Amino acid sequence: MNSWPVQTLNHTIEEDKDGKQPEEPEKQEPEQTQQRRMARRADSTNDTSGGATKGLKASWNHVMTQIDKLHKKGFRGSGIQIAVLDTGVDYNHPALGGCFGKGCKVVLGASLVPNDGDPNDPMDRHGHGTKVAGILAGYDEKDNRFVGAAPNATLAVYRVIKGNKQVEEDTLAAGWVRAYDEGAKIIVSSTGFPGFSWPYSLAATVVSRIVEKGIPCVVAIGNTGYAPFDVLNPAAGRGVTAVGAPGNSVPVPLKRGGYMNDSGTSFACPLVGGIMALIAEARGTFDPAEINSLLMANAAPQVEQSQVTGPKGLFTVMQQGGGLVQAWNAAHAATLVKPGSLHFNDTDHRPSSISLEIQNTAKSEVVYELSNIAADTMYTLDGEKFERKQHPHRRIQAEAAINFSKSSVTIGPGQSATIDVSASDPQGVDSKRLPLWSGWVAVNGSDGTSLTVPYLGLAGSLLSTSNSQDLAPSTRGEAPPVPQADGCVTSPPNLVTYAKPGIALNFLLASPQVDVYIVPLNVCPADHSQEPAPAASNQTDSSPSTGACVPESMITDIKGIKTIGQVPGRSKRYAEGASGLCGMARSLPARTLLPAGISLLLAS
């Protein structure tokens, strides 16, 4: 896989008020509410194919995503090994086979957490992984109790998270590699790191390379995020299937037995992983790009509902991706599109057009009509100060102009055609606030085919946008917020603070490289005869001293910037929006004091 050394990241769950780690930190509903919700499961009848799920009732999320229809036709993930990277699994649970090893539901597994129990035993100490595994492939026919998305699939479970939900990135990456090496056909992980929304981290790089090897990888996008462009790592990896919903009130099995409903993108991820197994079983392919395209093009774009006014219009692509997964339609689609989504970048870097290939795999000729389904435009930056906020993001009715080289095309059986799609920014928008526009290219066929290919673009220039919200001196450092394994960010207990001169810099948007330089205003000329000024004292006079200057020998020219050094001691690569830098100029020689005089802090 060719990865590189990485510093261990240690992420900790927040303790409860009693100082104990909660066994089940996900929000639980009252028992009566659970029973009412579970009782609402739609009845899947007319199952005459036998095997797992016969006579069982389909849960609401199976009906909504058409899983129940595939189950009725006998598609249940048979012969497919799916890997799960999480807190482990309670393989003694009846829905998960009641055993571990050859001939069991959980056929393979290990604990990859160093110095934390038996490395050959993936037993769950927390409960999160048991829920994920159950949604993915659980099955309990007793009293119509429970059925997962791919109930006939086998599981390989790798515990990469400690019982208190601490997770280290190198351990997580090792889990992905182990799952690949041991033959997983699909890999699912509902864990990762917030604040690393770049595809270049260790975990994201490893997962991307596994996808390149032909293994579909599904990752939860995260429960929280600071505005657009902020997802859980490694969900940002190239080719990774990043999943957000449905993840609310999902039926799940509990560690040590029993069932309940739980919520979070953690529980959307295994549902889609199971759907992938059903699609692969029905179509005979595990090709990640093809399955991703099938999932997106056959998804159902969702309309926002208001309790007062009713339907309010389509959620944007930034909010819902391709839409609600439709498993049956994806598994039986006779028309394929490539690519599965269209990315038009910002105004400065907009491609002149993107080629959309339509392939007809049916046995008869099909006439396809193309049209545009526009969603609202959403501003990235909110308010007069151009701040980036989590909520709300103002939406306006402004549509991008989408043009097709052909609006209609006839394709014979087994043939394909390419249509060029171009886009231009909506009119009347404030480009300084970086409006994100989106929608779907509708592809409707004479045979009843109805596909929607999501597209996304940005009006304005990311490169030209000032990226610093604040740049201020700081004399107080503290430990940063600690991300949990499921994407929730909490402050660690016993927060340690310490005096440390430096700066606090908040980024408006993410940046691949951030440097902060100390730039002296007074540099001694070459013929300067007096001794260099001493280090700054405690004088209160803020005016520059006429004799205080920085020797030219201390100056380094970096990209045209005449600087003493950097703050902090190293550049920050792949900085996230709303993150910050603290610390003093450790890049200066050891025990060196800044010379007297006035210096600027220049962020680049």
Automatic annotation (TrEMBL):
Sequence segments annotated as region (Disordered): 1-57, 529-549
Domain Peptidase S8/S53 intervals: 77-245, 254-300
List of catalytic residues: 86, 128, 266
Keyword hit for Acyltransferase: no
Compositionally biased intervals (Polar residues): 1-11, 536-546
Gene3D superfamilies: Peptidase S8/S53 domain
Protein name: Subtilase family domain-containing protein
Species this protein is from: Hirsutella rhossiliensis
Source lineage: Eukaryota, Fungi, Dikarya, Ascomycota, Pezizomycotina
